[in-house]
Amino acid sequence: MNRGSTAVAEPLEAFLRSKSKGEKGSGNYQRNLERCADDFLEWLETESYSDGTFDELDERTFRRYARELTSRDLAPGTVQTYYAHVSAYIGWCVREGLLEANYAQRNVAKEPLPENDGRRSGDQQAWTDEHRSLITRYVDKRAHDAADEKGLDAIQEFRDRALVYVLCYSGVRGGEIVADPKDERRNGLKWGDVSLEDRTMTVLAKKQNWSDRSLTKQVINPMSRYKDLLDPAGDDWPVFPTFHLPTLYETLQTGLRDEHDWSPGDIGEFVDELTGQPAVFEALREHELAPSSINTDGARRVMRRLCEEAEIDLDDTHGYLALHGGRRGAGEVMVRQRGFTSAARLLDNSEEVVRKSYSHIEAKEMAKDAGDAFAEHDT
Q1: How many CB atoms lie within 10 A of CB 307?
Q2: What global pTM score does this model have?
C-alpha cells in the first residue's frame, strides 16, 4: 500500500485481524471496533472527501467528526468510546506507515468532544449486602416451594437459584457463563468445565483466554442440588440451559434427525407425545442430546422477572439487579474485606484496573484515615 494515496477503508480488515484474539472469533471488542470504524468511514463518504484517502486527513477532519458525534443523541461516554475506537484505527494506520501522525489525538481535534459523564466508580450498579440477602432468600424459597410442589420437575426454579448464587458470589461476568448471540465462541458454561469438588469453573474470559475461576462455598450447595435435578447427560450440557420450549423442541428434532437418523414421521409422532419442559429434557437425556444455553438476553429477563416477583425495585437505569451488578458487588466485598490484590484475583483483572474501578472505596477509607491523622495532630 502506498502511503497517503491509500483509501482510508482499505486497511480496515487487516486492522481488525490484528485485534482478533481467538481462532473462531474476536469477541465483542473487535465488533465494536468495526462498528465505530465503519461509522467514521460512512461519515467520510457523506463529507467532501472525494477520494477518501489518507492524504486528505488532518486535524480538521477529526474535529469535524468529533462535532458530528456530539450532535447525536448519545451519552458522553458513548461519544468518547466511538472516538477512541476510531483513534485506535488511525493510530494503527500510523504505525503501518500509512499516515504521518494520529491527527485524531491532536488537542484541536478533540476539543468538541464532551467531558466524560463524570460517573464515579461507585455510581455503577453493584449488588449490596441487602440485595444479596433479598434475592438469595427469594430464590431459596421459590426453589424449595417448587420442589415440594413439583419434585424432580422443579429444574427451572433450581436453575434460576444457581444462576443467582453464581452471579452473587463468584465475581464472574454474565457473558462468561451464558451464551452470547454475537460471539459464536461464547455458547455457555458447560458442566465439563465445572468441578464442584475443587470449587472451580473454567470460563472463556473477556480477554478471550480460558480462565479458571472460583466457586465460593456459598455457591456449592445450590449448584449441587440443581445438578442433581437437571441430571445432565454429558459434559457438553450447558450449566444454564434455556427453558424456551420451541428452542428445546428444535434441538430435540434436529438431533433425532441428524444424529440418530430418525424419519420426519417418527420424529413428529415422538415429539407430539411430549408435553412441557421436563418431558423434553427427559427425551434429551435419553438420546444424549445437549440443549442450548440460555443467552445474555434470556439471563437478563430471568433477573428482571425474579426482581419483580421479589419486589426488589432499583432506582437506576436498569430497575432490576443487572448481571454486571453481581460482579461489581462481589468486587466491593473483596476490596473491603481482603484488599485490591485479592479482589483482582477473584475478578480476573489487573490490580490497576480494580483500583480504578473501586477507587471510591479507597477514597472513603483515605478520608477516614486522614481525618483521624488531623484529629491526632490537632489534639
Answers
A1: 21
A2: 0.68
